[in-house]
Amino acid sequence: MTGTAESSAIEAVAHALAAARHVAVLTGAGVSAESGVPTFRDAQTGLWARYDPMKLATPEAFLRDPQTAWDWYRWRRRLVTEVKPNAGHKAIAALADRVPRFTLVTQNVDGLHQRAGSADVIEFHGNLFEDKCASCDLREPAEPSDHGDAPPRCESSGEVMTPGVVLFGEEIPKRVLEQSQLAATDCDVFLVVGTSSWVYPAAGLADTARGFGATIVEINTEATPLSETADHVLRGPSGEIMPALLDALERNAGVTQ
Ligand code: BV8
User: Fold this and answer.
1) pLDDT of residue 145
2) Does 232 participate in catalysis according to the annotation?
3) CA distance to 112, 161, 168, 197, 253, per residue, from 73 (Å)
4) How far, in Å, from the CA of 160 to the mean position of ligand 1?
5) Low-confidence residues of the chain, pLDDT below 50?
6) What is residue 45's predicted lDDT score, i.e. its pLDDT?
């Protein structure tokens, strides 16, 4: 990312961030891509290449073939523990200390924002490190398990548990939804980083933020349904753009002081 267009766009966004009272950020799998975590749309690697994540990340998959569903999630759990947060995660964590008020909502379930130092992360789609029972909503830290182990069963309901993620067709936990929507109505700048903006209600947060007058910024390597309506589009990898944005903000803050 070195084009003059990009640097003037970066400066414009840094200027908006310097003037913001409250900055909210929504991230998707693209933020973890540079850590080596495949996104939902990337072809899954190795054993899982022939599986469709959209079919596996559903309650039906856990009813129809719990062993395969669980083995996919175990593979993902192991993968994310073996990778590290990247410069994009770290820049997002640092941004929180450079604006008066900051909210981070992530669609990612990999825990990499927390490992990069972000606090109070709103996990819109849950996380891989808990197990949950869909029928009695029991949640507990994920039991260590390996490929091929029997899927965990809930002690009280006896049902097969699922990982602590929000599967397609499941509701977003009420408190998480409310916190995220509140931040979208209150923020002055809404950064949408590394998401294809097609899964709802997460993708609807940008519409809410726009409706309440926020400046909408998309940071993505590709165009998405949001690109048309965003106030600024910074096209490129978040691992490069986020640190550049942080540097520009620091320069900006230096000027306005
Ligand atoms: C809900 C956790 C109410 C699991 C995920 C029919 C029946 C039921 C529901 C629906 C229905 N039709 C529509 C719906 C709503 C549905 C939905 O939106 N469906 C889609 C198919 C349209 N939503 C739901 O079901 C939600 N719940 O609506 O409840 C309800 C209930 C019942 C009935 C009706 C309504 C729950 C959705 C949550 C699903 N869980 N994750 C898990 O991880 O295993 S979603 C999952 O996929 C991700 O979290 C993410 O949100 C989404 C997309 O994933 P990816 O494509 O991988 O990632 P992303 O979108 O972030 O794309 C990567 C982007 O990064 C790309 O743009 C790429 O260009 C960019 N990129 C790549 N590298 C980089 C980069 N950018 C920057 N830098 C880079 N280096």
Assistant:
1) 84
2) no
3) 16, 12, 15, 23, 43
4) 23
5) 1-5, 257
6) 65
Beta partners for 160?
153
Rounded Cα distance between 20 and 189, Å, is 7
Tokens coding 85: 């947060």
Distance in angstroms (rounded) separating the CA atoms of residues 104 and 89 = 11
110 closest CA partner among 92, 127, 88: 127
At residue 144, the pLDDT reads: 80
- The vertex-53 CA angle with 37 and 24, nearest 5°, equals 55
Pocket test for ligand 1, best of 71, 75, 200 (most atoms within 8 A of CB): 200
pLDDT recorded at residue 44: 67
pLDDT at 255: 60
What pLDDT, on a 0 to 100 scale, did the predictor assign at position 42?
77
Per-residue confidence (pLDDT) for residue 172, from 0 to 100: 97
- The CA distance from 111 to 6, in Å, is 30
> Half-sphere exposure of 119 toward its Cβ, with a 13 Å CA cutoff?
5
Identify whether the C-beta of residue 98 lies closer than 8 Å to the C-beta of residue 82.
Answer: no
Q: Which residues line ligand 1 (CB under 6 A)?
A: 28-30, 33-34, 39-41, 57, 107, 109, 125, 165-172, 194-196, 198-202, 220-222, 224, 237-239
Q: What is the pLDDT of residue 137?
A: 81
d(CA 25, CA 193): 7
The half-sphere exposure of 101 on its side-chain side, counting CA atoms within 13 A, is: 11
